[in-house]
Amino acid sequence: MIAQAADAGYRGVVFTGGEATLALDIVLSGVAQANSLGMGTRLVTNGWWAETEAGAYDILGRLRSAGLDELNLSTGDQHARFVPVSSVIRAAVTSLELGFRSLCVMIEVIEGSVIHKDDILEDGEFRMALDKNPAANVQVIESPWMPVRPDRRNFYPDGYLLNRNNVALKTGCSSCLTTTTVQADGRIAACCGIGMRAVPELQVGRVESTSLREADLTAADDFLKRWIRLEGPEKILAWAANIDPEIEWENMYAHKCQACLRLYKDDRVRAVIQEHHQEKIPDVLLGEFLLTRFEPPAANAEFLEEIPIGETAP
Q1: CA angle at 67 for the pair 29 and 106, rounded to the nearest 5°
Q2: Which of 15, 158, 166, 213 is the most buried (most CB within 10 A)?
C-alpha cells in the first residue's frame, strides 16, 4: 500500500495506532520504504519507550536512520495513566537533539484536565532544546478528548463545545477524501477519523481486493463524504437540526469526529440527510469548484504543510 500511495501521488505516510511502536520493525521498514519513494513520514506515539535517556536515543536514533521526518507525541490525563509526561518530554527533547525537522505534542483536553500545554512549554529541558533548535517546526497543541460512541459525552472547558454561536467558524474536514487509512486488519478507510472503525460507510475496501486508486474513486463517489470535506460535520449537523428541530446538537460535541459519528449513527439525522441532501448539491458543487479550480493548490507543496499535524493517538 505504501508503494501504491507513492504511485498515486500521496505526499506522506503516517504510522499510528493504537501504539505503532509496539510493531517497531514494521514501522522502521515502512518508514524506510516511504522515504525511499520520496514521501514524508510521521509517527504518532505516546512515547512509552522514552522512560530512560538511553531508550529514547535508541528508538529515535533507529527511526531517524530509517528516514522519519516528524514525531507526533500524544499525552494528557488519560495517556499519563500509563506513560508519564516526563517520558513525553524526554522523547521530545531527544528528537530535537537528533535533528528531527518537525515535532508536535498533542495534549488531550476535557473539563478538569490536570495536564496542559504549559506543562510542556515551561519545562526547563524542553525550553532549552527549543532554544538550541530555533529552526525546528515545533507545535504544542491542546485537542478535545472524545469518546468513540456518539451517545456518550465528555465535558469540556468553556469555548470548546459546538453551538449556534460558533458553528459558522467550523471548517471542512481536512482528513475526509484527502487521507486514506489502511488498518491493521486490511480495511481501507476514507479518512483518519477516530471513529472510522465504527462507521461502515467510511470504509472503502480491503487491501487484498482493492487498490488504493480504486478505494479513492469509491470514496470520491459518495456525496456525503464530499459534503463533509467541504463544510465539515458540525455544519451538516446544524443544518439537519434546522430541518428537524427534534435533533439536539448544541453544547454536546467538541471534536469534529464525534459530530461526524452522529451524522452516520443517529437515525433522525440520517433520515434528514437522505431526504434533503439534494438541496445541498449546488452548494457543494460550487464550493468544490471554488476550492479546487478557482484557487488551485500550490505546486510542490511540502508534506508537512499539506497534512495537519494535529492528530492525537486513539
Answers
A1: 95
A2: 15
For residue 262, name the pLDDT band (cuts at 50, 70, 90). Answer: very high
For cell 467541504, the residue is 230
Find the distance separating the first CA and the last CA of the chain, reported in whole Å.
Answer: 22
Q: Which helix (H) or strand (E) holds 104?
A: strand 102-109
HSE at residue 154, side-chain half, CA atoms within 13 A, is: 24
Distances (CA, A) of 126 to 95, 200, 204, 250, 309: 11, 42, 42, 38, 19
The answer to whether residues 67 and 28 touch, using CB atoms and an 8 Å cutoff, is: no
Rg (C-alpha) for the chain, rounded Å, is 20
Q: State how far the Cα of 90 lies from the Cα of 53, in Å rounded to an integer.
A: 7
Residue 310 in this model has a pLDDT that exceeds 50: no
Q: Where are the domains of the chain?
A: 2-145, 165-297
Any idea which residue has 430541518 for its cell? 243
Report the pLDDT averaged over residues 248-272: 94
Whether the upstream peptide bond of residue 18 has omega within 30° of 0, thus cis, is: yes
pLDDT of 150 reads: 61
> What is the SS3 assignment for 4?
helix
Q: 40-45 and 70-75 as β-strands: parallel, antiparallel, unpaired?
A: parallel
- Residue 286: phi and psi, rounded to 5, are -65, -45
The confidence band for 101, taking pLDDT boundaries of 50, 70 and 90, is: confident
pLDDT in tens, 232-247: 999 999 999 999 999 9
The 10 Å Cβ neighbour count of residue 128 is 12
Segment 84-102 mean pLDDT: 96
Which CATH superfamily, name and number, covers 2-145?
Aldolase class I (3.20.20.70)
- 137 strand-pairing partners: 102
Q: Cα(88)–Cα(268) distance, rounded to whole angstroms?
A: 42
